[in-house]
Amino acid sequence: MTRVKRGVRATQRRKRLLKHTKGFLWTRKSKTRQAREALLHAWSFQFADRKKKKRTMRNLWTIKINAAARNNGITYSKLINQLKKADIQIDRKILAVLAEHNPDVFKQILESAK
């Protein structure tokens, strides 16, 4: 009778699990049980931080727009209000890029909003 090797799928599953834990510290990268626990925590933080990134980026755009607007003698809230009244639909991401890299174009937008 020939020998039957068993546990192929289980071994593949454990190897796939340990492949995700590359760079973890201590036994969290080499032992299956600790690795599974560490990955569950890591993936939950990863999910939450993808949501948090959107909030922090919008906050950063607001800071950049406010700084550029104050250099031109207007506050952020008044600028956004004037843009809405003038029906200029530029999102905050584009405004922040223009404020940082093309101040002359940003100034033209300010003038057209008044």
Automatic annotation (TrEMBL):
<protein>
    <recommendedName>
        <fullName>Large ribosomal subunit protein bL20</fullName>
    </recommendedName>
</protein>
<comment type="function">
    <text>Binds directly to 23S ribosomal RNA and is necessary for the in vitro assembly process of the 50S ribosomal subunit. It is not involved in the protein synthesizing functions of that subunit.</text>
</comment>
<keyword id="KW-0694">RNA-binding</keyword>
<dbReference type="GO" id="GO:0006412">
    <property type="term" value="P:translation"/>
</dbReference>
<dbReference type="GO" id="GO:0000027">
    <property type="term" value="P:ribosomal large subunit assembly"/>
</dbReference>
<dbReference type="GO" id="GO:0019843">
    <property type="term" value="F:rRNA binding"/>
</dbReference>
<keyword id="KW-0689">Ribosomal protein</keyword>
<dbReference type="GO" id="GO:0005840">
    <property type="term" value="C:ribosome"/>
</dbReference>
<keyword id="KW-0699">rRNA-binding</keyword>
<dbReference type="InterPro" id="IPR005813">
    <property type="entry name" value="Ribosomal_bL20"/>
</dbReference>
<dbReference type="Pfam" id="PF00453">
    <property type="entry name" value="Ribosomal_L20"/>
</dbReference>
<keyword id="KW-0687">Ribonucleoprotein</keyword>
<dbReference type="InterPro" id="IPR035566">
    <property type="entry name" value="Ribosomal_protein_bL20_C"/>
</dbReference>
<dbReference type="GO" id="GO:1990904">
    <property type="term" value="C:ribonucleoprotein complex"/>
</dbReference>
<comment type="similarity">
    <text>Belongs to the bacterial ribosomal protein bL20 family.</text>
</comment>
<dbReference type="GO" id="GO:0003735">
    <property type="term" value="F:structural constituent of ribosome"/>
</dbReference>
